[in-house]
Design brief:
Layout lengths: L5 H25 L2 H54 L5 H83 L3 H13 L6 E5 L2 E2 L8 H9 L12 E3 L1 H4 L25
Parallel strand pairs: 1-3
Antiparallel strand pairs: 1-2
Helix pairs in contact: 1-3, 2-3
Length: 267
Protein backbone atom coordinates (compact mmCIF):
# COMPACT_ATOMS: atom_id res chain seq x y z
CA UNK A 1 0.00 0.00 0.00
CA UNK A 2 1.23 3.49 -0.85
CA UNK A 3 2.26 5.45 2.22
CA UNK A 4 -0.61 7.84 2.90
CA UNK A 5 -0.70 10.98 4.97
CA UNK A 6 -2.14 10.73 8.47
CA UNK A 7 -5.19 12.72 7.39
CA UNK A 8 -5.93 10.35 4.50
CA UNK A 9 -5.47 7.33 6.75
CA UNK A 10 -7.89 8.81 9.25
CA UNK A 11 -10.44 9.66 6.56
CA UNK A 12 -10.26 6.09 5.22
CA UNK A 13 -10.79 4.53 8.66
CA UNK A 14 -13.57 7.03 9.44
CA UNK A 15 -15.41 6.09 6.23
CA UNK A 16 -15.04 2.41 7.14
CA UNK A 17 -16.46 3.17 10.59
CA UNK A 18 -19.50 4.85 9.05
CA UNK A 19 -20.11 1.84 6.84
CA UNK A 20 -19.70 -0.57 9.77
CA UNK A 21 -22.11 1.53 11.82
CA UNK A 22 -24.73 1.18 9.06
CA UNK A 23 -24.20 -2.60 9.06
CA UNK A 24 -24.47 -2.61 12.85
CA UNK A 25 -27.79 -0.79 12.61
CA UNK A 26 -29.14 -3.49 10.29
CA UNK A 27 -28.00 -6.15 12.73
CA UNK A 28 -29.72 -4.26 15.54
CA UNK A 29 -33.01 -4.75 13.71
CA UNK A 30 -32.56 -8.47 14.25
CA UNK A 31 -32.03 -7.74 17.94
CA UNK A 32 -31.44 -10.86 20.00
CA UNK A 33 -33.42 -13.08 17.63
CA UNK A 34 -30.36 -14.99 16.27
CA UNK A 35 -29.23 -15.72 19.84
CA UNK A 36 -32.77 -16.70 20.89
CA UNK A 37 -33.06 -19.07 17.91
CA UNK A 38 -29.70 -20.67 18.76
CA UNK A 39 -30.66 -20.98 22.45
CA UNK A 40 -33.99 -22.62 21.57
CA UNK A 41 -32.21 -25.03 19.22
CA UNK A 42 -29.81 -26.01 22.01
CA UNK A 43 -32.65 -26.31 24.54
CA UNK A 44 -34.68 -28.59 22.26
CA UNK A 45 -31.64 -30.83 21.65
CA UNK A 46 -31.12 -31.03 25.42
CA UNK A 47 -34.80 -31.87 26.04
CA UNK A 48 -34.77 -34.52 23.32
CA UNK A 49 -31.63 -36.08 24.84
CA UNK A 50 -33.37 -36.13 28.23
CA UNK A 51 -36.42 -37.72 26.58
CA UNK A 52 -34.24 -40.48 25.13
CA UNK A 53 -32.54 -41.05 28.50
CA UNK A 54 -35.90 -41.47 30.24
CA UNK A 55 -37.00 -43.94 27.57
CA UNK A 56 -33.80 -45.91 28.17
CA UNK A 57 -34.50 -45.88 31.92
CA UNK A 58 -38.01 -47.27 31.28
CA UNK A 59 -36.50 -50.02 29.14
CA UNK A 60 -34.10 -50.80 31.99
CA UNK A 61 -36.97 -51.05 34.49
CA UNK A 62 -38.91 -53.26 32.04
CA UNK A 63 -35.86 -55.48 31.75
CA UNK A 64 -35.65 -55.69 35.55
CA UNK A 65 -39.31 -56.71 35.77
CA UNK A 66 -38.78 -59.38 33.12
CA UNK A 67 -35.82 -60.70 35.12
CA UNK A 68 -37.76 -60.75 38.39
CA UNK A 69 -40.69 -62.54 36.75
CA UNK A 70 -38.30 -65.12 35.31
CA UNK A 71 -36.77 -65.65 38.78
CA UNK A 72 -40.23 -66.05 40.30
CA UNK A 73 -41.11 -68.68 37.73
CA UNK A 74 -37.90 -70.62 38.40
CA UNK A 75 -38.40 -70.34 42.16
CA UNK A 76 -41.99 -71.57 41.88
CA UNK A 77 -40.72 -74.58 39.93
CA UNK A 78 -38.25 -75.27 42.74
CA UNK A 79 -41.04 -74.99 45.34
CA UNK A 80 -43.07 -77.56 43.40
CA UNK A 81 -39.99 -79.80 43.33
CA UNK A 82 -39.38 -79.39 47.07
CA UNK A 83 -43.03 -80.11 47.86
CA UNK A 84 -42.90 -83.25 45.78
CA UNK A 85 -39.73 -84.29 47.62
CA UNK A 86 -41.57 -83.84 50.92
CA UNK A 87 -43.69 -86.82 50.03
CA UNK A 88 -40.61 -89.06 49.96
CA UNK A 89 -38.71 -87.78 53.03
CA UNK A 90 -37.45 -90.45 55.44
CA UNK A 91 -36.64 -88.36 58.51
CA UNK A 92 -37.37 -85.09 60.26
CA UNK A 93 -34.05 -83.60 59.28
CA UNK A 94 -34.82 -83.87 55.54
CA UNK A 95 -38.35 -82.62 56.19
CA UNK A 96 -37.13 -79.54 58.03
CA UNK A 97 -34.47 -78.86 55.38
CA UNK A 98 -37.04 -78.98 52.55
CA UNK A 99 -39.47 -76.82 54.50
CA UNK A 100 -36.67 -74.32 55.07
CA UNK A 101 -35.96 -74.23 51.33
CA UNK A 102 -39.66 -73.76 50.58
CA UNK A 103 -39.82 -70.92 53.14
CA UNK A 104 -36.75 -69.20 51.69
CA UNK A 105 -38.12 -69.61 48.16
CA UNK A 106 -41.39 -68.03 49.30
CA UNK A 107 -39.50 -65.05 50.71
CA UNK A 108 -37.55 -64.72 47.47
CA UNK A 109 -40.81 -64.70 45.51
CA UNK A 110 -42.25 -62.01 47.80
CA UNK A 111 -39.07 -59.91 47.44
CA UNK A 112 -39.17 -60.27 43.66
CA UNK A 113 -42.86 -59.27 43.57
CA UNK A 114 -41.99 -56.21 45.70
CA UNK A 115 -39.20 -55.29 43.27
CA UNK A 116 -41.62 -55.68 40.37
CA UNK A 117 -44.07 -53.26 42.01
CA UNK A 118 -41.27 -50.78 42.72
CA UNK A 119 -39.98 -50.92 39.15
CA UNK A 120 -43.52 -50.57 37.81
CA UNK A 121 -43.94 -47.49 40.00
CA UNK A 122 -40.73 -46.04 38.57
CA UNK A 123 -42.02 -46.74 35.06
CA UNK A 124 -45.32 -44.95 35.79
CA UNK A 125 -43.44 -41.89 37.11
CA UNK A 126 -41.08 -41.89 34.13
CA UNK A 127 -44.01 -42.12 31.71
CA UNK A 128 -45.61 -39.09 33.40
CA UNK A 129 -42.29 -37.25 33.05
CA UNK A 130 -42.16 -38.27 29.37
CA UNK A 131 -45.63 -36.86 28.72
CA UNK A 132 -44.75 -33.59 30.42
CA UNK A 133 -41.42 -33.43 28.59
CA UNK A 134 -43.07 -34.14 25.25
CA UNK A 135 -45.42 -31.19 25.85
CA UNK A 136 -42.47 -28.93 26.70
CA UNK A 137 -40.59 -30.03 23.56
CA UNK A 138 -43.63 -29.34 21.41
CA UNK A 139 -44.05 -25.88 22.95
CA UNK A 140 -40.36 -25.07 22.41
CA UNK A 141 -40.61 -26.21 18.80
CA UNK A 142 -43.53 -23.83 18.26
CA UNK A 143 -41.55 -21.00 19.89
CA UNK A 144 -38.57 -21.83 17.67
CA UNK A 145 -40.68 -21.84 14.52
CA UNK A 146 -42.15 -18.45 15.44
CA UNK A 147 -38.71 -16.96 16.15
CA UNK A 148 -37.30 -18.39 12.91
CA UNK A 149 -40.15 -16.88 10.87
CA UNK A 150 -39.69 -13.52 12.60
CA UNK A 151 -35.94 -13.59 11.94
CA UNK A 152 -36.45 -14.72 8.34
CA UNK A 153 -38.81 -11.79 7.71
CA UNK A 154 -36.26 -9.28 9.03
CA UNK A 155 -33.42 -10.93 7.10
CA UNK A 156 -35.42 -10.73 3.85
CA UNK A 157 -36.18 -7.06 4.44
CA UNK A 158 -32.53 -6.15 5.04
CA UNK A 159 -30.75 -8.79 2.95
CA UNK A 160 -30.21 -6.70 -0.19
CA UNK A 161 -29.09 -3.62 1.71
CA UNK A 162 -26.75 -5.64 3.94
CA UNK A 163 -25.29 -7.47 0.95
CA UNK A 164 -24.61 -4.17 -0.82
CA UNK A 165 -23.02 -2.69 2.30
CA UNK A 166 -20.82 -5.74 2.81
CA UNK A 167 -19.69 -5.60 -0.80
CA UNK A 168 -18.89 -1.91 -0.47
CA UNK A 169 -17.08 -2.61 2.79
CA UNK A 170 -14.59 -4.87 1.02
CA UNK A 171 -13.49 -1.92 -1.13
CA UNK A 172 -13.39 0.44 1.85
CA UNK A 173 -11.30 -1.97 3.91
CA UNK A 174 -8.75 -2.30 1.11
CA UNK A 175 -8.09 1.45 1.31
CA UNK A 176 -7.27 1.39 5.03
CA UNK A 177 -3.73 1.18 6.35
CA UNK A 178 -3.09 -2.41 7.57
CA UNK A 179 -1.82 -1.49 11.03
CA UNK A 180 -4.60 1.01 11.54
CA UNK A 181 -7.17 -1.54 10.37
CA UNK A 182 -5.95 -4.13 12.87
CA UNK A 183 -6.10 -1.57 15.68
CA UNK A 184 -9.60 -0.52 14.61
CA UNK A 185 -10.86 -4.12 14.50
CA UNK A 186 -9.37 -4.78 17.94
CA UNK A 187 -11.06 -1.70 19.41
CA UNK A 188 -14.44 -2.63 17.90
CA UNK A 189 -14.31 -5.97 19.66
CA UNK A 190 -13.74 -4.36 23.06
CA UNK A 191 -16.38 -1.61 22.95
CA UNK A 192 -20.13 -2.14 23.31
CA UNK A 193 -21.44 0.18 20.62
CA UNK A 194 -18.99 -0.88 17.88
CA UNK A 195 -17.53 2.63 17.57
CA UNK A 196 -13.79 2.26 17.07
CA UNK A 197 -13.29 5.72 15.53
CA UNK A 198 -14.85 8.58 17.45
CA UNK A 199 -15.27 12.24 16.46
CA UNK A 200 -14.57 15.12 18.79
CA UNK A 201 -17.93 16.44 19.91
CA UNK A 202 -17.92 19.67 21.94
CA UNK A 203 -14.47 18.97 23.24
CA UNK A 204 -15.27 15.38 24.24
CA UNK A 205 -14.74 11.88 22.82
CA UNK A 206 -17.76 10.91 20.72
CA UNK A 207 -17.47 7.34 22.00
CA UNK A 208 -17.16 7.59 25.79
CA UNK A 209 -17.91 11.35 26.14
CA UNK A 210 -14.83 11.96 28.27
CA UNK A 211 -13.38 15.46 28.05
CA UNK A 212 -10.34 15.87 25.80
CA UNK A 213 -7.68 18.35 27.00
CA UNK A 214 -7.29 21.39 24.72
CA UNK A 215 -3.66 20.56 23.87
CA UNK A 216 -4.68 17.03 22.85
CA UNK A 217 -7.47 18.46 20.69
CA UNK A 218 -4.92 20.70 19.02
CA UNK A 219 -2.61 17.71 18.37
CA UNK A 220 -5.49 15.79 16.80
CA UNK A 221 -6.27 18.68 14.46
CA UNK A 222 -2.62 18.91 13.36
CA UNK A 223 -2.79 15.35 11.87
CA UNK A 224 0.83 14.72 12.80
CA UNK A 225 0.02 11.31 14.26
CA UNK A 226 -2.90 9.04 15.11
CA UNK A 227 -4.17 9.78 18.61
CA UNK A 228 -6.51 7.70 20.70
CA UNK A 229 -8.79 8.55 23.61
CA UNK A 230 -6.99 8.36 26.95
CA UNK A 231 -10.13 6.92 28.57
CA UNK A 232 -11.61 4.38 26.11
CA UNK A 233 -8.81 3.85 23.57
CA UNK A 234 -10.90 4.83 20.54
CA UNK A 235 -9.18 6.47 17.57
CA UNK A 236 -10.02 10.19 17.65
CA UNK A 237 -10.72 12.31 14.57
CA UNK A 238 -11.51 15.99 14.14
CA UNK A 239 -14.12 17.72 11.97
CA UNK A 240 -11.68 18.07 9.05
CA UNK A 241 -11.77 14.28 8.79
CA UNK A 242 -15.44 13.71 9.65
CA UNK A 243 -16.91 16.71 7.89
CA UNK A 244 -19.04 17.27 10.99
CA UNK A 245 -19.05 20.91 12.03
CA UNK A 246 -20.85 22.19 15.08
CA UNK A 247 -22.80 25.34 14.37
CA UNK A 248 -21.70 28.41 16.23
CA UNK A 249 -24.48 30.04 18.16
CA UNK A 250 -25.83 33.15 16.49
CA UNK A 251 -24.77 36.20 18.43
CA UNK A 252 -27.62 38.30 19.64
CA UNK A 253 -27.77 41.72 18.09
CA UNK A 254 -26.66 44.21 20.64
CA UNK A 255 -29.10 47.07 21.19
CA UNK A 256 -27.98 50.32 19.68
CA UNK A 257 -26.84 52.99 22.11
CA UNK A 258 -29.28 55.79 22.27
CA UNK A 259 -27.50 59.09 21.77
CA UNK A 260 -28.90 61.77 23.91
CA UNK A 261 -29.12 65.05 22.05
CA UNK A 262 -29.57 68.39 23.64
CA UNK A 263 -32.12 70.65 22.12
CA UNK A 264 -31.00 74.18 21.39
CA UNK A 265 -32.77 76.71 23.47
CA UNK A 266 -33.83 80.02 22.10
CA UNK A 267 -33.71 83.07 24.15
Amino acid sequence: MVDLSIEKKLKAIWELQQLDSNIDQLNLLKGELPMEVADLDDEIIGLQTRHENIQNEIKSYDSNITGYKSNIKLTEELVKKYKKQLEAVKNNREFEALNKEIEISGLEILAAEKRIKENQGYIDLKKMALDELAGTIEQRKQDLEFKKQELETIVKETEEEEKALMQTRIGFEADVDDRLLRAYQRIRKTVKNGIGVAPIVRGSCGGCFAKIPPQRQSDIKQHFKIIDCEHCGRILVDNEVTGIYTEKPVEEEKPKRRVRTLKATTK
